[in-house]
Specification:
This protein is mostly helical and about 190 residues long. It contains 9 helices and no strands. α1 packs antiparallel against α2 and α1 packs across α6. Helix content is about 65%, strand content about 0%.
Length: about 190
């Protein structure tokens, strides 16, 4: 492993960390921690193996460790605060909706979705990075895409109509009827 190989991976590491954490400062810290870990554990990297997958594995494990050690912070729902926040409507609204919807995905689904779609990794590499079977990658990816589609469809409606019930009210109860009178499309698999 030489310095150039690692530097080539920095944009992908930063991109993944940014979307994974949802915060630019936390993403930079995560990339720095990943690089520090890579430098201290460089003897564990097998020459000839995929450096990119190894670095992403380190980053993912560090992220999970950070999540476990963080104290629980109060959750602020941006949809509830929408009325008090001021801002101009513009082209960036779709990007903000996408980012907000990505952050609402469960971390396991978000990690799979980001690695496969944003980082263009195949299912095998994604499975190795996350330490899960390939079938689980495909299942989580399918659920993440479905849930993201549903969240994106509800995002504009939620901000336009304050009477729309939040997604969390019906997402764990597949037999409930959504405020529009139609059954929800999310179902528990277990």
């Amino acid at each position: 492993m030489n310095r150039t190989q690692v530097v080539e991976q920095l944009p992908a590491l930063r991109r993944y960390a940014r979307v994974l954490t949802g915060d630019a400062w936390a993403a930079d810290d995560l990339v720095q921690d990943t690089l520090e870990r890579a430098c201290s554990k460089w003897l564990l990297w097998r020459t000839g193996s995929d450096l990119r997958a190894w670095l992403f594995t380190l980053m993912h494990n560090l992220y999970l460790n950070q999540l476990r050690t963080q104290p629980a912070l109060p959750h602020l729902d941006l949809d509830e605060l929408h009325e008090t926040l001021q801002g101009s409507a513009g082209m960036g609204d779709d990007a903000l909706d996408l980012e907000r919807c990505l952050q609402r995905l469960p971390p396991e689904q978000r990690a799979v979705l980001l690695l496969v779609t944003l980082e263009d990794m195949d299912y095998g590499d994604t499975a190795r990075i996350l330490g899960i079977p390939v079938g689980t990658v495909m299942s989580r990816l399918s659920r993440a895409r479905s849930r993201l589609r549903l969240l994106m469809e509800r995002a504009p409606a939620a901000s336009a109509s304050p009477t729309t019930a939040p997604l969390a009210a019906t997402e764990n109860h597949p037999d409930q009827v959504a405020p529009t009178g139609q059954p929800t499309t999310l179902r528990r698999l277990k």
